[in-house]
Design brief:
InterPro entries: MazG-like_dom, NTP-PPase_MazG-like_C, NTP-PPase_MazG-like_N, NTP_PyrPHydrolase_MazG. GO terms for molecular function: ATP diphosphatase activity. Keywords: Hydrolase. The protein is mainly α. It has 3 domains: 12-102, MazG-like (Helix Hairpins), CATH 1.10.287.1080; 140-218, Helix Hairpins; 222-268, no CATH class. It has 12 helices and no strands. The chain has helices at 12-23, 31-35, 38-57, 61-84, 90-104, 106-109, 118-135, 151-164, 172-192, 195-215, 220-244, 254-268. The longest helix has 25 residues, at 220-244. It is globular, with a radius of gyration of 25 Å.
Amino acid sequence: MSHSLIHDPEGGLPRLLQIMRALRDPDTGCPWDIEQDFASIAKYSIEEAYEVADAIERADWSDLRGELGDLLLQVVFHAQIAQDRGLFDFADVANGIADKMVARHPHVFGDESRDKTAAQQTRDWEMVKAAERAARAETGTLDGVALGLPALLRAIKLQKRAARVGFDWPGTKGVLDKIAEEMAELAEAQASGDALHAEEEFGDLLFVMANLARHMKIDPEAALRRANAKFTRRFARIESLLAAQGKTPEQSDLAEMDALWNRAKAEEKGAAPAS
């Protein structure tokens, strides 16, 4: 195999594809890359997608460029494994998604009018996807919602599908009432000492919280990422305030750290910290 393209800094996608072929070469490739299969690298594909989202959340566009490259590598890796097995290749992947985009945008690539609202386009999109599912013999309302999705995201997708056929609350009041009901059931399960029952009720509560996010048009994954970032930021402030006293969190107690948390919170909101 010639390495001239591999060492061409302007080689673009053909260069990346050849690099992956070289890495997977059974005689001269990398032992680790050769050993991988779809299942073994699936977790990395998921991680890279989240790292793309993280770069966007931080508005770090230089990092986003790198993370998009890492995500693209995962697509190339899966496609090369498929090619090695005689299933399909990268061109098939690219052509498949291109065909799908053309079919799903007849108002751009076909004869349909572009004179429609975003809401109408969304409805049309869902009709096209429903026809595609029917062609795959996926006749159930919830068929085709990928099992491998993160649980919170899958909950939203399941709820959206059910809502399309009328299985949904008309507004947030019904969801909030259900949350109160599930919280009471969780407390009862916890009090019973039945760990499996408590886990089940906790899952029910999370599912309904996801439903509330959907009704409020909140992305629960994004909301939780921001909450995680806020917690990380404020706890780091607690540590810095303790360090100024020559202490670590282990040398503190909950009351002191809670007071410092409130100070960090006040600082973020621009209020004067309590003395």
